[in-house]
Write a structure and sequence with these properties.
alpha+beta; 4 helices
Length: 165
């Protein structure tokens, strides 16, 4: 089941734990522009010449500039925080394997797929894959805390705060 086929049960909070099913997935795509790389380098302070200096990078094993791996991996957060589980979810952990470089101008497609649900701890295990065309550039697994659906008539249902991870 692709979560992009139906809206979240509560758009202000994304999917609740009770809405998730094994195999449910969501996707996000973004074309990486020159400005994205410059902004990311400025934000994180990583001005490694492999990312920001064409002449240097052209003499590297990559034969040209590559997008920061952390920049590409950060797109996983977009899927988890805005698509599925969506707003209200808390990103707890991520393991990632970097498989291939991403270049300026590449379109990165990220797919997140629910592979496990721990209802007792309000956690979902989510397989994460970033691809450029048919090439997997990053794969891994995320653990996300997902809020439960509030009890009818509760303060949480009325818009109160949720506590605890």
């Amino acid at each position: 089941m692709d979560s992009n086929d139906r809206p979240a049960a509560d758009p202000m909070h994304g999917y609740f734990l009770e809405d998730l099913e094994i195999g449910m997935s969501a996707v996000y795509g973004r074309t990486i522009a020159e400005g994205d790389v410059s902004l990311f380098a400025g934000l994180c302070g990583d001005d490694n010449p492999l990312h920001v200096h064409e002449e240097f990078a052209s003499r590297s094993r990559f034969e040209g500039r590559v997008v920061h791996g952390a920049h590409t991996a950060s797109l996983i957060s977009t899927v988890l925080g805005t698509r599925m589980p969506g707003p209200g979810a808390v990103y707890l952990s991520q393991n990632s394997r970097f498989r291939a470089p991403v270049r300026i101008g590449d379109t990165v497609n990220v797919r997140a797929t629910v592979t496990g649900i721990d209802r007792g701890r309000n956690r979902a295990t989510i397989a994460t894959v970033c691809s450029v065309g048919e090439t997997v550039v990053i794969d891994g697994e995320a653990i996300v805390w997902v809020p439960s659906r509030p009890e009818p008539g509760s303060e949480e249902e009325a818009g109160g705060e949720r506590n605890g991870v």
